[in-house]
Amino acid sequence: MDKKEAILKVMGSVVDPWMKTDYVSARMVKVSDDAETVTVEVGYPIKSVKA
Question: What is the pTM of this model?
């Protein structure tokens, strides 16, 4: 397993509390080809979410 696959596997286990789905299935995670950059883009303003 290469770095990119490992990152996607871990991020696939993280569930977004607002959308109730994992980040990979929701296509929120982008990993660069060299696996040096990981970007998580949510579809809502983070400041509006309170724990």
Answer: 0.76
